[in-house]
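Q: Predict the bound structure with zinc ion.
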Amino acid sequence: MSASWPCVRVPLGDRAYDIVIGHGALAELPRRLGSLAKRKCVYVLTDETVARFHFNPLAALLGQHGYAALHLSLPAGEGTKSFETLGRVLDWLIREGAERSDVLIAFGGGVIGDLGGLAASLMKRGMGFVQVPTTLLAQVDSSVGGKTAVNAPAGKNLIGAFYQPKLVIADTSLLSTLPRLQLAAGYAEIVKYGVINNAGFFDWLEKNGPRVMALDADSVAHAVKVSCQSKAGIVTEDETETGVRQLLNLGHTFGHALEAANQYRDDLVHGEAVAIGMVMALAYSARLRLAPSQDVQALINVLEAAGLRTGYPGGGRFAPDILVRLMKDDKKARGGKVPLILARGIGESFIYPDADLSDVEAFLDSHRGHAGAK
Ligand SMILES: NC(=O)c1ccc[n+]([C@@H]2O[C@H](COP(=O)([O-])OP(=O)(O)OC[C@H]3O[C@@H](n4cnc5c(N)ncnc54)[C@H](O)[C@@H]3O)[C@@H](O)[C@H]2O)c1
Ligand SMILES: [Zn+2]
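A: Predicted complex:
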């Protein structure tokens, strides 16, 4: 029975690991822990919201197999991804006697995963690390690939390390308690994989996106699996982002500028900004006559079917000159040029190394009131 879960292997040599996916896949955790943890005790890092819904069943499952779950539950939200909290997590691990051969389980969204991974990498120069992502975004993106970080006052993710987990378990049944907005935000990252290099998957999303959003078990599991395969493939080729891994930033240069312009307020969460950013990237590709304009519309349709906004909120704090200045800072522009991820169409993205920011600004100006704008 345990072997029946779909599994994606991330083939990183002696650091290779499995992503086990499916409705109820958490049941696989105790068996897998047998080869990962020396002691019958694990350290579970989580946030208060996730703990409220899901900690007791996790602790019971571990208990049935003889594992004690020591846990630390932190406030939910991006504010927890801080250097101060990292210190708190390390203090807790030291106080509770964690050894290098023990396992820290990050049980939560990307915030807990990024913080937990960094803490695990530092604890006694690297203790075992397992990701049990509980948001759709974390299941398809942040739990895979080994990027860990906390934020600094000067910017997001400035303090971090590459540290791969030994196992990821994406139990899609945990998503049933996730707010709709968070689900849509994760869905935007799923669509991203189709646009990057998988037109067939994009077609599948055109038909099955509503089933994914309705949490139909087989549809979500398929979407998570294809997304993880896609991310695993790209990460394996370029673990530390010197080349092809940059494609994963599709929609993110525009998206980060929108988030920064909005001062990271939660009326525009990351996935929403990425959705708008992807439309901008494709529309800009169309302006350069690289991509057909019907592909821009196809992207808008898929995102809007999931309830995501796609229009560029043109004025005020989002004015083109402000966004371009933020893009310049984000990418450390040289000679007024920045690298952008553009596409020749759905499934055909590429690195465009020298986008001219004055042209991008003119594009943003004309993009206001675009077909997808609301
Ligand atoms: N490491 C990477 O490669 C990578 C990639 C993308 C994003 N990230 C990071 O991930 C973070 C965003 O992750 P996120 O969107 O998962 O945010 P998050 O961890 O803040 O979770 C979003 C909200 O959902 C709640 N939540 C989580 N699981 C739930 C569940 N099952 N039911 C109900 N509520 C639940 C959380 O308590 C939180 O309030 C950012 O810090 C971002 O920088 C990292
Ligand atoms: Zn993202």
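A: The longest strand covers residues 155-162.
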